[in-house]
From TrEMBL:
Gene3D superfamilies: Fumarylacetoacetase-like, C-terminal domain, Ribonuclease E inhibitor RraA/RraA-like. Residues 24-224 form the Fumarylacetoacetase-like C-terminal domain. It comes from Microbacterium gallinarum. Residues 35-59, 250-286 are annotated as: Disordered. This is Fumarylacetoacetate hydrolase family protein.
Length: 518
């Protein structure tokens, strides 16, 4: 029987593969370079599915839908399963991979808002998974020695290797096989390194996977064209972007053509991300340089008074003292939680790339690592190496309601650090590092990622991000008033009626302020 035109076109999409894949499984975030770029590292791999209808061969043209702007490319190593894998061990997992090739995991950031990490719409479009052109025999290569490179219009955009992955290739196969059978022809997209960016109509994107000096997939070539069809808002949500999405799609504010952001990372995005993972958050709202300067100018006692006026009395991190009493601490919270030590849990969670290490690797510029240690002073919660790491990352400081070991060396780093005291013991004596960027309790105060942390010699307070500007402006005004009152007291006036100001003194204060303003 003569093959129909439709069947021929369908077959052409899969010409680089042994068969049409029953499943395409993609990982959200897997390369250290990408994790560092995004400022977050996952503890475990997390995944999403792509439909096999999204596969395209080398040389294909894909469309950017009408009304959208952020079609991003992601060069990746693709694994093609050869023999069924179900609950296979890490040691045997690679033997179930038949071939390795190049893939491009295209995604439309405009459609991430309602995908919440599933990426069904943003990454499932027709042609959004180019694969090929050639297959590398997996049995002939070292899975840690693969290189992936991406070119945009002939210029190198991505260059990394499987040695730079957080999760080894074989681990992905073994992990997925715990949950369902990987069948012959299934494809695993293993994540993209740093350098992913936006392709616009007319751009040509090429991806190659190879073993340097050895076998290669050849270059996978895809051309982007402008599509005429858009989306119907009566059927589902329409494309929507903000500057956070633009920054993530392009890779930086500069690349996105956005003005320099004094706050460091722009506004908080409310859309779902293609690199969504748990438990690490997508980052917290940063403070503008102007707002940070205001917070640095006001004592914690003044901020505390304004929070109390707004009904917030339980915002003090009690029991901690600064290693540098003269230093002011201002930043947004990134949180780390320790649970009481239990030997079996320390065995499973205490070693390797644990929550403590992930927190210090992920902290960003102007952020404060806040540690829940239950007020337990019988063990250190950080030492000099981690303090150096936080300082190198541009952290604003550290607050822990536990101990600090290597206290002299930690103090010498110069970072503002608040702690209950020094203790020489390591974590395993009292703590298990458990999770990051979750709501925690530190020094009797609830702290959420993104809360504003301010500390000085009086102590540390937590300010909800939504009211921080209101609070600090009110505190500055109160500081001015208190300074004026102090001057009157120094002149010999009695406190009664002056502190706080009665109507008569208030009128004199207002008149004085008005006179100075003119």
């Amino acid at each position: 029987m003569q093959e129909s035109t439709a069947d021929a076109a369908s077959d052409a999409r899969f010409r680089a593969l042994p068969t049409r894949p029953g499943k395409i499984v993609a990982i959200h975030l897997s390369y250290a370079s990408r994790a560092d770029q995004r400022g977050r590292r996952p503890q475990h791999p997390s995944y999403f599915f792509k439909p096999s209808s999204s596969v395209a061969p080398s040389g294909a043209t894909i469309e950017r839908p009408a009304g959208t702007e952020l079609l991003a490319f992601e060069g990746e190593i693709a694994l093609v399963i050869d023999t069924p894998a179900r609950r296979v061990s890490l040691a045997e997992a690679w033997s179930h991979v038949g071939w390795v090739t190049a893939a491009n995991d295209f995604g439309l950031y405009d459609l991430r808002a309602n995908d919440k990490g599933s990426n069904v719409r943003s990454k499932g479009g027709d042609g959004y998974t180019p694969i090929g052109p050639g297959l590398i025999d997996a049995r002939t290569i070292d899975p840690t020695a693969l290189r992936v490179r991406t070119w945009l219009n002939g210029e190198i955009a991505q260059d990394d290797s499987s040695a730079g992955m957080i999760f080894p290739l074989a681990q992905l196969v073994a992990d997925l096989s715990q949950h369902f059978t990987l069948e012959p022809g299934d494809v695993i997209l293993t994540g993209t390194p740093a350098g992913s960016s936006v392709a616009v109509p007319g751009d040509v994107v090429e991806v190659e996977v190879d073993v340097p000096g050895g076998p290669s997939s050849g270059r996978l070539v895809t051309t982007v064209a402008q599509g005429a069809a858009g989306f119907d808002g009566d059927l589902g949500s329409l494309p929507a972007v903000d500057d956070v999405q633009r920054t993530e799609a392009w890779g930086s504010r500069e690349a996105a053509g956005l003005p320099a952001d004094a706050s460091g990372s722009g506004e908080q995005s409310t859309t779902g991300g293609s690199d969504a993972e748990s438990p690490v958050s997508a980052g917290s709202p940063a403070l503008s340089s102007e707002l940070r300067a205001k917070l640095e100018s006001v004592p914690v006692a003044g901020l505390s008074g304004q929070l109390r006026k707004r009904g917030l009395n339980n915002v003090h991190i009690d029991g901690v003292r600064p290693l540098h009493p003269e230093a002011k601490l201002v930043g947004t919270a990134r949180t780390l939680r320790f649970v009481p030590n239990r030997e079996d849990l320390f065995t499973s969670h205490g070693g390797g790339y644990n929550a403590q290490k992930r927190a210090f690797d992920a902290v960003g510029e102007g952020e404060v690592i806040v540690i829940e240690a239950r007020g337990e002073a019988g063990s250190g919660t950080l030492g000099d190496v981690l303090a150096i790491r936080a300082h190198a990352r541009g952290a604003a400081g550290i607050v822990t309601d536990g101990g600090v070991r290597d206290a002299a060396a930690v103090t010498a780093v110069g970072l503002p650090i608040f702690t209950v005291g020094a203790h020489p013991a390591v974590l395993g004596r009292k703590h298990v590092p458990w999770d990051v960027d979750a709501t925690i309790a530190c020094g009797g105060a609830t702290v959420q990622p993104g809360d504003v942390i301010v500390g000085d010699a009086d102590g540390v307070i937590v300010i909800p991000a939504g009211i921080v500007e209101e609070v600090v402006d009110a505190a500055i005004a109160q500081e001015d008033e208190d300074a004026w009152i102090a001057q009157r007291v120094a002149e010999g006036h009695p406190v009664d009626g002056l502190f706080p100001l009665n109507a008569e003194w208030r009128a004199r204060y207002d008149a004085d302020r008005k006179g100075k303003a003119t």
